[in-house]
Amino acid sequence: xxxxxxxxxxxxxxxxxxxxxxxxxxxxxxxxxxxxxxxxxxxxxxxxxxxxxxxxxxxxxxxxxxxxxxxxxxxxxxxxxxxxxxxxxxxxxxxxxxxxxxxxxxxxxxxxxxxxxxxxxxxxxxxxxxxxxxxxxxxxxxxxxxxxxxxxxxxxxxxxxxxxxxxxxxxxxxxxxxxxxxxxxxxxxxxxxxxxxxxxxxxxxxxxxxxxxxxxxxxxxxxxxxxxxxxxxxxxxxxxxxxxx
Length: 245
Description:
Elements: H1 5-41, H2 46-73, H3 78-117, H4 124-145, H5 149-156, H6 160-171, H7 175-199, H8 206-244
Helix pairs in contact: 1-2, 1-8, 2-3, 2-8, 3-4, 3-5, 3-6, 5-6, 7-8
């Protein structure tokens, strides 16, 4: 399958489950907004922030579990997907935690090297930018190679380390995944341009612009989730072909 065909396939998939994933997207997206509102009022504790983030993550995993269930069994039952989410939630949180921990550990030596290269720069903003840029080189490579770790935990029940290794093997020298990520980058660029255009709508008030931005996020997030899941699924199907080339 061509990477560009994933867009049409994902849109068709999205249309078939829109009435279900839309509400999961609303639930996942509204939690961070509540967190920001509480922060603005200065009335939220560290535990409160953690719980709100956990709720948002729960609904994101719920959406992914539903998409996986529908893709495999054509079952659009939210109840069944909820049970699957309960089974997979803590294993996927564990994989996410280890994934994030390794991201930090990989960023540290990059930041140190960046600091050495930027030591002679007087301007603090330029210095910070160069350090961040150099640190992102190994981090970007790691994120790309281990991106599908949580998907392996969901679909294969792999633990964090095994899931990271499986993702690394899947993405290594995989031209389809590389091309699919390029296509996804173009779609995300269009999405970012739309957000910028909405932000420039002077005729609307701040509240109206916020509502429009929230609506865009709610509508586009399920598509991204479906696209990435289909990328993962197709890559698994094509893996024997990739290894023969």
